[in-house]
Description:
Rossmann fold; alpha/beta; globular; 3 domains; eight-stranded mixed beta sheet; Alpha-Beta Plaits
Amino acid sequence: xxxxxxxxGLIGGSIGxxxxxxxxxxxxxxxxxxxxxxxAVALGALDRAGDSLADAVGDAEAVFVCAPVGVLPQVVADVxxxxxxxxxxxxxxxxxxxxxxxxxxxxxxGGHPLAGxxxxxxxxARVDLFQDATWYLTPTRGATGVLFERLHRLxxxxxxxxxxxxxxxxxxxxxxxxxLPHVFANVLVAQAAAAFAGDDDAERLPATGPSFRxxxxxxxxxxxxxxxxxxxxxxxxxxxxxxxxxxxxxxxxALAAADATAVTGWNDGAADDRRRLLEAQLAAGPLHELRVSxxxxxxxxxxxxxxxxxxGVNITDMALYPAPDHSEGVVALWIAGDEPAQxxxxxxxxxxxxxxxx
Length: 358
């Protein structure tokens, strides 16, 4: 398989390493920095460095665009202009609406691997970076079924767990579980630094206990990346910040009133919420194969995947089997868990598609 990577840092380099080792793929790359490209080839993340973006992607079957969020729409557009008509193009940005809304091409499927490290650069790339990591896919309704399936299978072969979600839901969710924690981490370290400033006894204080270190691990993350993320998702982030401020206000009132019952209920509720979130992450079960008959129409597979995602059903794997005359085909879907499979069966049937268990 021929893969191209545009932007060969930690994420792009790790994709290259995994694709070469696990898929036996031929990987070309392009970056604005010639030094970065030379380093990527030397480290084995690339087979070759492209002389230009067009040279790198010109014969690719799949392209991963790993550029900063602020420039993704333009870089993706440039890649689509140079990539073959049968090539799937995706990105790895931490926000999705800005690029998905800007790009109108059936070859493009938005993506976001939930993987990374505190270090940046291709020299820190790892072949196992995506092992068992969730990798969100945010297809548009016009996405080509064959290319969507190719990308879904490719990501699974890299070791990740692909999960389909719409771009708006992705950004709202990431504002709560990724972007807001970064804001809190920055606030906590600034508050602590201010509290100990000018304190003659500060050196003897346990200023960085385990809970503080855990809560502030991501403080001061790379501004070249995170300024774009904060701004691109600012509306969803502000909404989560306002909600957090309201919750802090409620706790403040309980503390000011010395209301032990309210404080205990708040703390116990947090423990219950955390347990439910962890159980949801670990939920799985036996695999069920569903076979869905669909017409050969643009976007039908992407629409089906998005409908299932909105119902909380993730597709573990998929395959397409077109009819000889290509007028219709069968989509095989593998769903983990008895209850999700039953929901998928009902939902697909309600949408008017013939469906059966294999």
